[in-house]
Amino acid sequence: MRTVSVCVIAYNEEQFLPKLFKDILSQTYPKELTEVVLVNATSSDRTKEVMLDFKGADHGFYSVKVVDNPKKNQASGWNVAISAATGDVIARIDAHSHIPETYIEKCMENIDLGEYVTGGPRPCVVENKTEWGKLLLETENSLFGSSINKSRRTGEKSYVNTMFHAVYRREVFATVGGFNENLLRTEDNEFHYRVRKAGFKLLFDPEAVTYQYARSNLKKMLKQKYGNGYWIGLTTGVSLKCLAIYHFIPFCFLLGIIFTTILAFFDLWQLAALMWGLYALFAVANTVLSLKNNGFNKFFFVMPFLFLLLHISYGWGTLIGVLKMPFMRRKLQKCDAIDEVKNAVKAGGTYEKV
């Protein structure tokens, strides 16, 4: 049987790590074939102490490593983890997540069947179980509120362009290298584009499900959407082909608002009426569908406006990113860490245990 390195990177996640560690301990894949690589991004809370406590306990894993990510961002954290891993297979797990006990086993079954990259859907679960928190979750999970990306919802077993949590054979990183550390939100998209370009396929398995804790604060959710859109805009100058059409729908919607508003000032209001009418129809229809699937929520009437706020935040971020892209393009394209990770993986893991 193959060995697997379960990699987790974290920044100020002392509250969520104990939950994730329980998930890792409950995995049905043999512990004697499992390595755990924990990466601390210079956290200011007790994240590293929690990691070291986990390392100090004898859980039966063949190795537990705690390493540091001084650059702090997510892409560099994954590069540190991948370089430190010694398993035949490398699994990436976000600290703000929940993984069912059979996740690693199901992914390893796909690897044993000949796949090189595999993963599954990543729906969100609520962190705050109040009515308002549930409403934000339903908005985030809805097709209209998030995207049509299969990595966020269930479906059939098929090959996809990208996914959130994934499991990779070492050969993948030895061939394409690591993540572009200049991309702070779209590193997955760009990396998986290089993976596909190298001839590897990404198998989506609906049974290999993991869960992401959704933000239960509207301000944080809007900030996240703006950031996602911003990096979509910047990434157009790095690797446009790694992005999908649906990434630009909020941007097109924002441009539509601007364009039709200008026309309305010249008494050409028909396009604005048509656009807002169609948008309201979709927003209300998705709200009704959410009520049908998830039950009554006393804040349900707010959902259409939440859709609007999320789409405008994302679209505005993309607009700012596109405007800044020409000035940042050259800097974003060059990343020596990509080849450094490739060399580290070929060497079999270079970071010392700490």
Jot down its keywords:
354 residues, alpha/beta, Spore Coat Polysaccharide Biosynthesis Protein SpsA, Chain A, 2 domains, 3-stranded mixed sheet, 11 strands, globular
Plain-language structure description:
- Residues 350-354 have low confidence and may be disordered.
- β1, α1 (17-25) and β2 form a beta-alpha-beta unit.
- The strands form two sheets. The chain has an eight-stranded mixed beta sheet, with helices on both faces.
- α3 runs parallel beside α12 (337-347) and α10 packs across α11 (303-333).
- The protein is globular and about 70 Å long.
- The longest helix is centred in the C-terminal third of the chain and has 31 residues, at 303-333.
- The chain has two domains: 4-216 and 336-347, Spore Coat Polysaccharide Biosynthesis Protein SpsA, Chain A; 240-332, no CATH class.
- It has twelve helices and eleven strands.
- It has 354 residues and is of the alpha/beta class.
- Helices cover 48% and strands 14% of the residues.
Question: Would you summarize the structure shown here?
Answer:
The chain has 354 residues and is α/β, with parallel strands linked by helices. It is built from 12 helices and 11 strands. 48% of the residues lie in helices and 14% in strands.
Shape: globular
Second CATH tier, the architecture of the largest domain = Alpha-Beta Complex
Q: How would you characterize the largest beta sheet?
A: 8 strands, mixed
Radius of gyration: 21 Å
Question: Total number of β-strand segments?
Answer: 11
Percentage beta strand: 5-15%
> Which class do the helix and strand fractions yield?
alpha/beta
Q: How many domains comprise the coordinates?
A: 2
Helix content: 40-55%
Low-confidence stretches: 350-354
* Quaternary organization: single chain
The mean pLDDT is 91
* Name of the CATH superfamily of the largest domain: Spore Coat Polysaccharide Biosynthesis Protein SpsA, Chain A
* N-to-C series of helices and strands: EHEHEHEEHEEHEEHHEEHHHHH
Strand order, largest beta sheet:
3-2-1-4-9-6-10-8
For the terminal residues, how far apart are their CA atoms? 27 Å
